[in-house]
Amino acid sequence: xxxxxxxxxxxxxxxxxxxxxxxxxxxxxxxxxxxxxxxxxxxxxxxxxxxxxxxxxxxxxxxxxxxxxxxxxxxxxxxxxxxxxxxxxxxxxxxxxxxxxxxxxxxxxxxxxxxxxxxxxxxxxxxxxxxxxxxxxxxxxxxxxxxxxxxxxxxxxxxxxxxxxxxxxxxxxxxxxxxxxxxxxxxxxxxxxxxxxxxxxxxxxxxxxxxxxxxxxxxxxxxxxxxxxxxxxxxxxxxxxxxxxxxxxxxxxxxxxxxxxxxxxxxxxxxxxxxxxxx
Length: 279
Description:
Blueprint: H1 4-24, E1 27-28, E2 38-39, H2 43-49, H3 52-83, H4 90-102, H5 105-116, H6 122-129, H7 144-169, H8 173-181, H9 186-197, H10 199-215, H11 218-223, H12 235-245, H13 249-277
């Protein structure tokens, strides 16, 4: 009885839309004139799998995931371990790392566009001071994706740091002390004590970051617009283009289903691998 309101909300706002997306993925759905919609079965999926643009968007998504998730996870773990050590101003540093995460992506993206500006941006000014060649950053085919990755790491790493710090506080201090008494070096203590006990937290962070990277859209929309020359057109951005620029609603729905299946499959594999290692 107590779960009825929550279950109703879940059905209306999650299950219902998901079923509707699956339904319209089987149609050549005209967003502007739904009376012109035609049942095509798996035709949208077949068209999608034959599209070079779709495979390019998947490759760009993989590039973004591989470039952002490992650095975001293990960089955050390193920062969390440093912030767990007692030093003056520790609270301020914790705040500095977390503040970007709670600021709007759109607002901070605009600031970073100024930093990335090839004429008067801070990053190119620093390169010039170091007598290095300047970079086109978001306007360059080569550096557009790395630029988005840099911004994403800056914006999201604070969340990972907080989660890892919470995980580190659950590790009994006497376990580490026993390892040090036995002569373990800090590196040995990390691999033998900290890392195994932190495995559930690490799995959570990896899964959340992977899902977030697969679904990332706002930073691409505000920083690069999917360009230049589709250099940052990920699967999520490609879905947006098909749905709200070209109004290929059925095609976009099929893409949404495929993105969901990829996300679910990767999450399942990550959880199974982690569980197998700790059985």
